[in-house]
């Protein structure tokens, strides 16, 4: 309990509880959860006129109007699954787990406001169509529509369907077609903004439809049996490669099509899916979770990918080579990535939303090496990790230092020396080739002056 501004607040961890308020010394109570989506309340603290409430894995919310409304304080919730943004800069983050819900920010993530989803459990996907927001539910199924930035919701069809993805194709003047991919029920199309839906599965060999991509050459669908392409808005589908793969995501960079199967690295097609080439080391289970791209001014594109286990990676040559670019990110488990204006946002697994200016992320390694001196010694996680058999280890030195970089097995035996000399200040990169070693866990240790740090790497044959 806590008293603020003449009101008494109580925290409840019951299913329908949350924040309760009484204005008559506890004789009667009403809910005060506006802005807190489906979170259990556990504790309060007041700082002058500002009231804070701690919720069960939903993070910390604050109120400046005696509990009439709440906004997320910026303290992380756990599992960020997807982003969507409106032209006015309003950014939405869809979360799952115990802190599940839909959150919105208008100020680049300084504060987040909860949006109560119409279906309380297991939100799966969101999409923006003009001024409307569409959301799907995984546990109970169905689609929902909001015309007030997520504050209220109405049903929008597909009851009982486990909707994995919503994609909107706009024609201008407000005309749209909406595509929905489901888990086990195939693909659906709506031409009336969700009022009615029709199945569009002719030619598909899998009823698991995880993702869609709208392009100038047609619509691509990522399914449980590879990529398919339609040139007639889903009336019929034709195979477009990667048969037998469970496709998690698709992206178009210029005229190149990228696809990433579940628990795999990415592939690129330059001929609309007729042929595919791996653009990462597919001998190790690097899991791509999202891709965004911007022109780099040199005729190629900066491609930025979020990954499960390898942080954020960058390619400046259309996917031919990749480097880690996630300095400061608290976790290597990233589930979503998006661009809003000049900022890049990463949704993490367990550490909330992270923001970084795009210009910092896309600064090439060459530019960093030539123009900057690090402020502190640091050892980065190797990439890729797991690896087979080659991986890259990066570290930085603020001053000239005597450096040793060695690799050890789980018994502490030295198996490789990668550096053992005096090195000048700057950003460093070392390649480790483990072709003579057996699969397993290894450790690499950097010593530079009084600085010593050890990290783990995993070799998978």
Helix content estimate: under 10%
DSSP strand tally: 42
Question: Widest sheet: strand order?
Answer: 1-2-3-4
Distance between the termini: 57 Å
C-alpha geometry: globular
Q: What summary fits the major beta sheet?
A: 4 strands, antiparallel
Radius of gyration from the CA trace? Answer: 25 Å
Number of helices: 2
Q: What's the overall average pLDDT, rounded?
A: 81
DSSP strand (E) fraction? over 45%
Structural class: mainly beta
User: Low-confidence segments, ≥5 residues, pLDDT <50?
Assistant: none
Give a written overview of the molecule.
- The chain is mainly beta.
- 2% of the residues lie in helices and 51% in strands.
- The chain has 2 helices and 42 strands.
- It has a 4-stranded antiparallel β-sheet, with no helix packed on it. It has a 4-stranded antiparallel β-sheet with strand order 5-6-7-8, with no helix packed on it. Strands 9-10-11-12 form a 4-stranded antiparallel β-sheet, with no helix packed on it.
- Strand 31 (312-315) and strand 32 (323-324) form a beta hairpin.
- The longest helix has 7 residues, at 365-371.
- The protein is globular.
- It starts with a strand and ends with a strand.
- The mean pLDDT is 81.
């Amino acid at each position: 309990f806590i008293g603020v501004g003449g009101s008494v607040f109580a925290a409840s961890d019951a299913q329908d509880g949350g924040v309760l308020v009484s204005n008559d010394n506890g004789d009667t109570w009403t809910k005060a959860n506006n802005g807190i989506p489906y979170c259990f309340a556990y504790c309060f603290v007041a700082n002058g006129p500002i009231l804070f409430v701690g919720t069960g894995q939903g993070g910390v919310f604050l109120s400046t109007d005696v509990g009439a409304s709440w906004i997320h304080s910026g303290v992380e919730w756990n599992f960020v699954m997807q982003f969507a943004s409106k032209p006015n800069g309003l950014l939405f983050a869809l979360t799952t787990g115990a802190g599940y819900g839909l959150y919105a920010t208008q100020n680049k993530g300084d504060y987040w406001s909860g949006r109560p989803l119409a279906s309380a459990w297991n939100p799966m996907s969101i999409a923006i169509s003009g001024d409307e927001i569409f959301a799907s539910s995984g546990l109970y199924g169905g689609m929902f529509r909001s015309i007030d930035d997520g504050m209220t919701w109405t049903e929008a069809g597909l009851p009982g369907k486990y909707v994995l993805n919503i994609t909107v194709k706009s024609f201008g003047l407000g005309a749209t077609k909406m595509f929905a991919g489901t888990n086990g029920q195939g693909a659906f199309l709506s031409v009336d903004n969700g009022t009615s839906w029709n199945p569009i599965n002719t030619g598909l060999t899998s009823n698991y439809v995880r993702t869609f991509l709208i392009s100038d050459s047609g619509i691509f669908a990522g399914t449980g049996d590879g990529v398919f392409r339609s040139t007639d808005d889903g009336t019929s589908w034709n195979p477009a490669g990667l048969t037998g793969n469970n496709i998690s995501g698709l992206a178009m960079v210029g005229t190149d099509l990228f696809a990433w199967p579940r628990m795999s690295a990415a592939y690129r097609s330059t001929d609309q899916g007729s042929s595919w080439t791996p653009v990462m080391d597919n001998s190790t289970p690097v899991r791509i979770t999202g891709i965004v791209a911007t022109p780099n001014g040199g005729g190629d594109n900066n491609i930025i990918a979020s990954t499960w286990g390898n942080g954020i990676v960058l390619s400046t040559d259309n996917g031919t080579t990749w480097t880690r670019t996630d300095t400061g990110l608290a976790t290597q488990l990233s589930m979503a990535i998006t661009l809003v204006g000049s900022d890049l946002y990463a949704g993490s697994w367990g550490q909330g939303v992270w923001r970084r200016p795009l210009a910092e992320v896309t600064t090439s390694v060459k530019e960093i090496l030539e123009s900057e001196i690090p402020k502190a010694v640091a050892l980065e996680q190797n990439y890729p990790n797991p690896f087979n058999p080659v991986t890259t280890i990066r570290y930085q030195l603020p001053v000239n230092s005597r450096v040793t970089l060695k690799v050890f097995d789980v018994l502490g035996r030295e198996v490789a020396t990668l550096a053992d000399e005096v090195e000048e200040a700057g950003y460093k990169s070392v390649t480790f080739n483990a072709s003579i070693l057996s699969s397993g866990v290894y450790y690499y240790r950097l010593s530079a002056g009084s600085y010593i740090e050890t990290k783990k790497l995993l070799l998978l044959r």
